[in-house]
Design goal:
The protein has about 290 residues and is mainly α. It is built from 13 helices and two strands.
């Protein structure tokens, strides 16, 4: 069950965008042409998620005077949900550097920026959901739920599902349980073990040797305080290899495609957010 227009929810899924903007034109006869339309579908998916995230943020502002939050619910909504939604604007910063059709290697500065944004996005996606759970508990939860251990509070935890006051909303988001498990595989290492990483480029063995040579020269130039040479060597490095749109935690793990994975994950969070917002406005809607 959702609390929003189904067609709007569909736009947050890549397959919906692919069916409209990609599939009719992908004929399997020309790889370059097919890639153009696949990337076009990915871009439309990104724009749909961008707009939906902006709308969710605006909707959060509208809820404040309507919901009449209790003190603690107000605390978690203002300083948890709303702050984290604002931090997810990192998605736009990420896009400004990497879109689906990028092939040029990332600079060192760009690599640092997109890695920071990516980890920030994944930490805050699940952070928003945790904050929503606390808002619901303090706004509508029974006394037993409010006294539960903090580790047992979550939209996909049994504690909330067993609370009759919260069960209707928890049932409504239960279809996202599989996604929540998948995204934890992407988020948890970023929070507790290895940060998410976007490789600046893919290299042939010969190109790897050239990158190592330039990096050694750059260190030598840096030690000699020849900063112009450092800058020139950095520029030379970006002309080696081709960018491949993937991210991972460490080199030994399987790489994950940035698009459509990243906007798809944000889109699922937005769907859950809309469900929770509708419940916060009127808990009888979920019954």
């Amino acid at each position: 069950m959702t609390f929003d227009d189904e067609s709007e929810f569909d736009k947050l899924d890549f397959q919906s965008n692919f069916k409209q903007f990609g599939a009719p034109f992908v004929l399997g006869k020309n790889i370059k042409n097919d890639l153009y339309f696949i990337n076009n579908a990915k871009e439309m998916h990104i724009f749909s998620v961008d707009q939906a995230l902006m709308n969710l943020n605006f909707d959060a502002l509208q809820i404040l005077p309507i919901a009449k939050f209790t003190g603690m619910a107000n605390y978690f909504f203002r300083y948890g949900v709303m702050r984290r939604l604002n931090m997810l604007s990192s998605f736009r910063s990420f896009q400004s550097i990497i879109m689906p059709d990028r092939t040029v290697s990332l600079t060192i500065e760009q690599t640092d920026e997109v890695c920071r944004d990516l980890s920030l996005i994944y930490i805050n996606i699940l952070g928003v959901l945790d904050n929503y759970a606390w808002v619901m508990v303090h706004q509508f939860g029974n006394e037993e739920t409010k006294k539960a251990r903090p580790a047992s509070i979550g939209l996909f935890k049994s504690t909330l599902a067993e609370d009759c006051n919260l069960k209707p909303a928890i049932d409504a988001v239960s279809s996202f349980r599989g996604w929540e498990s998948d995204i934890k595989d992407r988020r948890d290492p970023a929070a507790h073990r290895m940060p998410l990483y976007v490789p600046p480029a893919a290299y042939t063995p010969e190109e790897i040797a050239e990158v190592d040579r330039l990096d050694n020269l750059r260190v030598e130039a840096l030690l000699a305080e020849n900063f112009q040479k450092v800058s020139d060597l950095r520029s030379d490095r970006t002309h080696i290899g081709n960018f491949v749109s993937v991210f991972l935690h460490d080199p030994g793990e399987k790489a994950i495609e940035i698009y459509p994975t990243l906007p798809e994950d944000i889109g699922q969070m937005v769907k859950i957010g809309r469900i929770v917002h509708a419940f916060l406005r009127d808990p009888t809607k979920a019954r």
